[in-house]
Amino acid sequence: MVRPRSDRSLLNPGSVISPDSASQLGGLRRQLGLGSAVAATVGEAIGVGIFLTPAGMARQLGSPFWLLIVWLMMGLMAVSGALCFGGLAARYPEAGGAYVYLREAYGPRVAFLYGWMQLLVLDPGVTASLAVGLAAYAGSVARITPADEKFLGIVVILTLAAANIYGARLGAAFLQTLTWLKIGALMLLVVWAVALRLGNWSHFSPFITRRAASTPFIAALAASLIAAFYSFGGWWEAAKIAGEVRNPERIMPQALTIGVSLVTLVYILVTGVFIYLLPMASITSDETFMAQAGQRLFGATGSDIMAALVMLCVLGSLAALLILSPRVYYAMARDGLFFHQVARAHPRFGTPARAIAIQAVLASFLVAVGTFDAIVAYFIFVAVVFLGLTVAGIIRLKRRVSDGPTIRIPGYPFTPLAFLIFVGVLLFLLAIHNPLQAFLGVAVVLIGIPTFRLVL
235 lies in a domain? Predict the structure, then answer.
């Protein structure tokens, strides 16, 4: 196992804290089961995108067939990736997820760059974005001021953070409740629409032929795949709690596979019912799409009911993010790549309290200043690069590591190769879509290299 040289660490002047010795310092406790891990996978992936993304995809693709095919393609990518991440989590059942796998495959420098990106930009930025989105939907229902929306967003972040500090089981139980509520509500929406015959099956015709006003096919497919990835992304984050899952060798592969399969099914069914409710030609914008769907489903109160459903989904994603992300900072500190105090779990609750507090404070600051969406967008390309590097690391590790348990990936080597093909296509599309964002994101992450030299 690759470890940084702790004798030169500026942040951790003592020694590197190994996972085996973590319990002596009040380490993380293995107290989570299959339900918690599945909820983390689903909760992270199903957010506001399920309501907004289909509208833009429908306008560009102009065909029910291609709209559903894009979700199916994203589902296949997610399943192949889940099988890979599940195998890695079973082989390296530690807190940190991709950070741990990158460290094992490429060494501490690459792992640090991943953690650097997560800590300073992606995690607090996405957390802030979700909190502000949640508060905005609450504001549309309760008619509160923008200042009150910011305050509400910060309160939600700090409340969820406090619950996660108080206990992993408490945070996981709350996440499970939100996840099953959101799945139940979305499935009820599907059944409600079909049982009451609120739509028309003729909206699926023509099924394959694209509308004349649609975007040219290649451009439409590219934009839709990017949008679907944005909406579908995050399922891999569940691997970050492997250090707190009982019997992770069995549970983590199951949880990731079950989770992404559920997410795929939900996205296809909900998109299908939206097509059933509204003809594709009538979809003009995300906002009018939501209003039209809500009115068709629930009448005059439809917009408020849909807003409440969106809030439920966003709250679930936010709860998952505040559980999963801090495990990376905890793992970095344990390896001597971050302040050593962060590697000490709460002596009473057994949670990475300081890591959780760091994410909550950074995200709350971003909510207060109101600048994060543009920043986060610059790092999506790099995040996909790290996703590809993580799975490519399986091939590297299988060739290099001869001692200890092997990494078990169903369908190897075709499963990781299929995922890497998906990633390659996605990176190409992202680079073509906005090359400046991709370049700047890579440049900022590479600034972490001199920082890494200072840390070690």
Answer: yes
